[in-house]
Specification:
The structure is a single chain. β1, α1 and β2 form a beta-alpha-beta unit. The protein has a single domain, classed as TIM Barrel, CATH 3.20.20.140. The longest helix is centred in the middle third of the chain and has 18 residues. The chain starts with a strand and ends with a helix. With 275 residues, the chain is an alpha/beta fold. The chain is built from eleven helices and eight strands.
Amino acid sequence: MAPWIDTHCHLDAPEFAPDRAQARERAARAGVRVCVLPAVEVGNFDAVRALAHAHGDGYALGIHPLCTGRAGDGDLEVLDHALTQHRADARLLAVGEIGLDYFVPGLDAGRQEFFYREQLALARKHRLPVVLHVRRSADRLLKELRGAGVGGIAHAFNGSVQQAGQFLDLGFKLGFGGNLTYERAQQIRRLATSLPLDAIVMETDSPDIPPHWLYATAQQREAGQPQGRNEPAELPRIAQVLAQLRGIAVGELAEATTRNALQALPGLVTLLTAS
């Protein structure tokens, strides 16, 4: 069976501090060959790069929309410098995680949009794809992407079928993960089963977006049960749910989504060959 690629994993997150290496080993045993570790602000550029080199993974450098409130304009120069400095690093795969978030209250939309536009320009300058954060912002993201000359992955996609088609027309793949394991997630399930198979890549967004078997309800948490932590080793089981929903063999899904990931992030080809 083709190896799995977790196209979005925050292995540097503090939730992994107790067992980061062991979590990556569990993923490897489960068949996850490569994880893509996107940065969220300049303060973790070095961390994601070091982890990628330590575990044979890839990384992306960028400033997350939720971090734009504390980011300085000079951080864009730091990003530009880092992309230049590590241009020859085969593990640098993309600019990300970048994008827009119109769901979380209190964020400055104009500042988010400034950082988004500037980072798209940097991706174009450095000839790298992007890893996009899309939350109630698909139309605005698409407006800026038209003519931007970059492709990549729309992470944790939950837009409309029409918006999905527009991302695909611009050369993007769409990321799906733990959300699709919930029976109530009808919109995501409709997308994940109706889109062409060549549109989809797999991700965990770990430690976030736990699949249903790790999720603790509010009542359970009040009773003392901790919320389950997502991790890359869950990817094959999440993918098995998607394969069942689509009525295909899990091996067929592995082959297709790995091929799609290589198209979205071409640098993965070298990493898979080397690993």
